[in-house]
Amino acid sequence: MDNQTIIKTSNLSRRYNGQTAVDDLNFEVKEGEIFGFLGPNGAGKTTTLLMLLGLSQPSSGSAVVCGMDPIRQSKEVKRLIGYLPENVGFYGDLNAVQSLEYVANLNGLKGEVVARKTDNLLDLVGLKQDAKKKVAAFSRGMKQRLGIAEVLIKDPKVLFLDEPTLGLDPDGALRIIDLIESLNKDQGITVVLSSHDLHQVQRISHRVGIMINGKLVAEGSIDSLAKEKFGVGEKEYSLEEIYMKYFREG
User: Which residues pair with 211 in a beta bridge?
Assistant: First the structure.
């Protein structure tokens, strides 16, 4: 694995009760890029993320994240990555500050550094004015932004985001996408973004991978995938058009 590759899978597979959820997956994510991870429900995207996070063991094949095996070096990998699942859980009786302090303590942070990080992160995600509000009173969009603040508390090198805009109104989704883009541009954080919002993925992703029925059927920039499926021409194809072409043929 070269020094620009931060995630690499080699024939990564996962089978459950005789059913193959992920089938010989091979792809790479370069350091400092946003990688859009696409596919219909049941395609194997979340299963893949769980294996990269060291939360599920492959049936065969291997993965490398930040130069390490996420299964054999699980603790070391988890120190360097952040994960925002599709449905984020919170303690509703805590406020935003208390929620971040709790996560900071779980990550071994203590004292003044916690107060400083909490204040900076709430400002970063646009929740500073709501710092003392109970999380139970937060909208879904506010909870998503708080979730991103929580995964940033340990200064991760890589963020895995699973449907971060699901269920949000257009304004809330735009705020999340803008935040993800700024984290990538301003802090150099590598992002793996799993989402059904193809318009937003197209807007910020450097490259995409498309999974169908457990297989990676495409990987590359949007321009390169368009040329592969539609040939060279004057028309610019949207990610949705490219995705549907692969989906129909998948």
Answer: 216
- For the chain, helix, strand, coil in percent to 5 are 40, 25, 35
C-beta atoms surrounding 146 within 10 Å: 22
Q: What is the pLDDT of residue 1?
A: 46
Alpha helices in the chain (DSSP H): 45-52, 74-80, 96-106, 112-124, 140-152, 170-187, 198-204, 222-230, 239-249
pTM of the model: 0.91
Note the pLDDT of residue 207.
96
In this predicted structure, what is the pLDDT of residue 234? Answer: 59
Residues of the chain with pLDDT under 70: 1-3, 232-234, 250
CATH class of 5-89+156-249: alpha beta
For residue 184, give Cα distances in angstroms to 20, 114, 158, 177, 204.
33, 23, 10, 11, 10
Residue 134 · residue 92 · CB < 8 Å = yes
The set of residues, in sequence order, having a beta carbon less than 8 Å from that of 187 and lying 6+ positions away, is none
Q: Are 56 and 21 in contact (CB under 8 A)?
A: no
CA atoms within 13 A on the CB side of 74: 9
